[in-house]
Amino acid sequence: MLTKTVEPAIEDEFDRPPKPWPIATLLGVAVSLLLFVGLALLMYALTAEERNKPIEEKPPAERLKELRASEDEVLSTYRLVDAKKQIVRIPIDRAMSLYAESASRSSSAESDQAKKNESVNKP
């Protein structure tokens, strides 16, 4: 007589509760995706006003003219920069003349000192 042997079914697979890892992974991916899409839409909405604003660009020649005028004003006017520290801005021409005067005074003082040293060192 032929008897058929039946392998016992693995009942562990069906009796135990499902592992939480696959569910948590899918939930994490879904939340991350929703967060990314939400932030992208928020940024799009916040910048929509900027994108729809008409560009009011001046011609390069006019912008250059304005830049040079503002630079000329900075270089040619007096201005109080910091009252507490007593810092002022002076015109560039005045600054160069003051520097030249101080440089010539220091060089003449150095040459006078050198002459005195030479006369003292002579026997």
Characterise the protein shown here.
There is one protein chain. With 123 residues, the chain is mostly helical. It has a domain at 91-123. The chain has 4 helices and 2 strands; from the N terminus they run αααββα. The protein has helices spanning 12-15, 20-52, 60-76, 92-121, and strands spanning 79-82, 87-89. A two-stranded antiparallel sheet has the order 1-2. A hairpin with a 4-residue loop joins strand 1 (79-82) and strand 2. The relative contact order is 0.04. The mean pLDDT is 81.
List the helices and strands and how they pair.
Blueprint: H1 12-15, H2 20-52, H3 60-76, E1 79-82, E2 87-89, H4 92-121
Antiparallel strand pairs: 1-2
Keywords:
123 residues; mainly alpha; two-stranded antiparallel ribbon; 2 strands; 68% helix; elongated
The total strand number stands at 2
Alpha carbon gyration radius: 42 Å
Question: Which stretches are poorly predicted, pLDDT < 50 over at least 5 residues?
Answer: none
Classification by helices and strands: mainly alpha
Order of helices and strands: HHHEEH
What's the overall average pLDDT, rounded? 81
Strand order of the largest sheet: 1-2
Largest sheet: 2 strands, antiparallel
Total helical segments = 4
Give helix % range: 55-70%
Question: Hey, roughly how much beta strand do the residues contain?
Answer: 5-15%
Multimerization status: single chain
How far is the first residue's CA from the last residue's CA?
Answer: 142 Å
Principal-axis shape equals: elongated
